[in-house]
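User: Predict the complex.
Assistant: Input components as received:
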Amino acid sequence: MREITLSKAVNEAIAEEMRRDSTIFLMGEDVAEAGTPFKVLSGLVEEFGTERIVDTPISEPGFMGLAVGAAMTGSRPIVDLMFGDFIFLVMDQLCNQAAKTHYMSGGKLSVPLVLRTNLGATRRSAAQHSQSLHALVAHIPGLKVAMPSSAYEAKGLMKTAIRDENPVVIFEDKLMYNDKAPVPEEEYLIPFGEANILREGRDITLIGTSSMVQVCEKAADMLAEQGIEAEVIDPRTLVPLDEDSLINSVKKTSRAIVVDEGHQSYGITGEIASRLNEKAFYYLDAPVQRMGAMDVPVPFSPALEDITVPTPERVFEQALKSVKGELFHGA
Amino acid sequence: MSRNSKKSNDEAYVRMYQQMVRIRAFEDNANKLYLAAKMPGLTHMYSGQEAVAVGICEALKSTDKITSTHRGHGHCVAKGADFKEMFCELLGKEEGYCRGKGGSMHIADQENGNLGANAIVGGSAGIATGAALSAKHLGKDDVTVCFFGDGALGQGLLYEVMNMAALWNLPVIYACENNLYGEYTKVEEMAAGELTARAKAFGIESHIVDGQDVLAVNKLSQDLVARARKGEGPFFMQLNTYRYHGHHVGDINREYYRPKSEEELWKTERDPISNFAKWLLKEKVLTEAELNQIEKDVQQDAKDAVTYAEAADYPDVSEVTLHVYKQNQGEGASQ
């Protein structure tokens, strides 16, 4: 199978959907000729023109609001938010308007839009261009949240997001834009709410999201060298969450670590860990562990930034402690 | 003026009069429901501002869109809504426009192009402008009117979207209802400079009109809507008006921010309904008896709708999880 970058996969997904459905348009800052700072959208304006690939002023709340109104009236907008950190700017339009409109109108109005943005630290971009803020929107009923972990997922989830009748926020890992993965030429969609078991194992479950899926896979390789079989699961979407697959895995392995690049406190890791405790408690041989980003603003200096996010080595060490029963002894 | 155009004008005058009377009657009944503790929560009265909503909406067709505010009953009625479904919504009943899930501050009537009231001040400026962008994108000639109060002039979103509307010539009309108070504070204490200067800065053609004069509002609206439809938008209207009640129905003792004498002046000398009634009599469009009959019919409609809504059912508790997400094709029921 051919291999393409995550960036190309996103580009293909959007282009294919825009060819299929003329009500789709895309807007954001420097999305047309510039193709975004990451060049993810290069070439789209040449095919679809500036009426459908719309450069906006630097007005995130404004164009987010425009997208909500457009989605309510028959268009299917894709909003490009240059950095995930800017989500704080669009919160009212996203969470008070887009997320609630279908419910508040008793089902009469709907807001089929996609907000595509990114996450991920260790790019030396400091505290306002490095955050992983998906937990903020996963908290709000009415929004769906997708977290692609490779080029394959990025394409399949983007196509599903565009066809969804609800507002969907899709977080791409900006460090993975140039990472290649096998992606079929033929069309495919990845349904929301279906976790992907990347690797089966019987000793411990490593649940990773987005950027942390690779981290979990590498940790699993290291564990394998110690004769420990880790199961690696990627939920792929946080909302809806494929709780059953996660619970069934933990019932089998009796141990779990949840790894996510958002801040550890009040975040995704805590949510998933508590669901596992509620629904698989009597199968557990060790407390479910959480590994998120440190609860600090992302620092600029590489010497500091690198220690703020989970690494394969740290996941490996934690898994080892869990399997050896050392978590019970003050670890 | 030919006979036919006089006839069609007269029909429009009568319709506008009826609609204003309907708004006033709706609000009087909503206020009574609140005072009798029959309505959950609270609400914001549109009384006094009727000529604004009616004068503008009379210039719109049903596929044209509006976005409304927390003080939104008037816009909803003016865009063609039904009393029964409105009162049901105010009382949280299943037959309400939003199945009781929105209430007064989120009342929406999609079939008549009302994209909804909004409880975030200025929060619908993006939606209105987006609806206009959508019409352009989809090749429709619909126009969108964005209603907001003077208080929304403090919101940055408005300026972001007015900028884009002007850059892209969107068919949207920003209707700023200056009722002199944002919540409990005078407009001049909160908005520096001239209100229309904001729109003019973006090159948006701006107008100031007496919001108590339904004919003046309608005349300007007809002109601007027709031009917006042809792609000459956006436009900005400042409509000078007055709210008779407090910020909300519970804002009773309000002399610390505005004197009773001021309220009396507006009610006795500038009331949009009684002034228009005088004009209709003078121009012999309606007789005194016909005016009284309209008033009587509307009061009866409102009374019947309130009675109906009071007796109507609440939604079943199973509805609490319904409509969080819209079902996609091929998906099971509520997620």
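Residues 72 and 111 of chain A are 5 Å apart (CA to CA).
Let me know if you want any component modeled separately.
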